[in-house]
Amino acid sequence: MLLREPDLSDVASFPALHAAALRAARGHWRSVAVDDFFLRLEPEILQLERELWAGVYRPAPYRTFFIREPKPRTISAALFRDRVVHHALCHVLEPRLEAMALPGSHACRKGHGVLAAIRQARRLVRRHPWVLKLDVLHFFETVDHAVLKRMLAPLIRDERLRALTDAFIDAGAPGSLPGKGLPIGNLTSQHFANFCLGALDRFLVRGLGVPGYVRYMDDILVFGSDKASLWQVQAKADLWIRERLDLVFKPAATRVLPVRVGVPFLGFVVFPGLVRLDPARVRRWRRKMALLQRRAEASPVQAQALVSSASSLLGWAGHADAGGLCRSWVRRRVPGLCGEGPGQLP
């Protein structure tokens, strides 16, 4: 299907920005920044519209903070008005990015996600005896701006729309080298980064003809029939990603292993017959559940408020074959979630 060439009017019109503001606000209605924006919704959108058409719009500096789980990262939070523009731009570009994506890619795509990636990994583990595991070293921090712009150019022919896209890319990531990096936490970064590695998907699947492949952002699994052939794939992929994308794979994470020992992927360990929780993820899960327990024991009111949080954690664990762990932990540790203890709910 031929897609219409997008231009700046698809992003900078009042209806487009209004719809983008509603999308950006989903799940954040308790935020002060969101409330302030919507209290002045019409003048805020009109101001963005004027700046975008005049070509003077520039994203504001990010607010950064550090997280330690699931691994140490610096997160960059954009102002809400900038997130509105992120959503407007990605809404326009998403169909064109989707048209380039292969079935094995599961990040930043409707109908996909972590669980879809795990399901595909589970199918492939049953079909192939060996797997090559790859992970890009400091991926978001090292994405090359010039490479990314060159890849996006055929999809964005309107000069003003391309200038807006370049403005988000050029903003870079805090702490990255000049001309490198995308800020973790931005919707545009997620889509651009995933699109960048889509070229690797095509090289592996169409260029090398690997029989099985699944990727979630920069976590990559390549399946095959024997160990030697997968190491050959690794050597070719390593050379390609260096030359074409100016990226490198993380040496410590590069492994070829038989699937029977379990394939670590996205916080799970995938076996041919079942899916387990990754041991490190289990430890984090236990810490979170213990925190919920302490809060619930401190106050029945807090116990009621925290049921949804505990249910979310249990629901996540339930995607693996961990029903026994969930049931025993809830019965023994979290009052109120099993109809027992001081935090019992009506």
Q: How does this model look, in words?
A:
This protein has helices spanning 9-12, 14-25, 32-39, 41-54, 80-100, 114-127, 139-142, 145-152, 159-170, 187-207, 227-245, 279-298, 300-305, 307-317, 323-333; strands spanning 63-67, 73-77, 130-135, 212-216, 219-224, 255-258, 263-265, 268-270, 275-277. It has 346 residues and is an alpha+beta fold. The strands form 3 sheets. Strands 4-5-3-6 form a 4-stranded antiparallel β-sheet, sandwiched between helices. A 3-stranded antiparallel β-sheet has the order 7-8-9.
Quick structural summary:
By secondary structure, the protein is of the alpha+beta class. It is 53% helix and 12% strand. The strands form three sheets. Strands 4-5-3-6 form a four-stranded antiparallel β-sheet, with helices on both faces. It has a three-stranded antiparallel β-sheet with strand order 7-8-9. A two-stranded antiparallel sheet has the order 1-2.
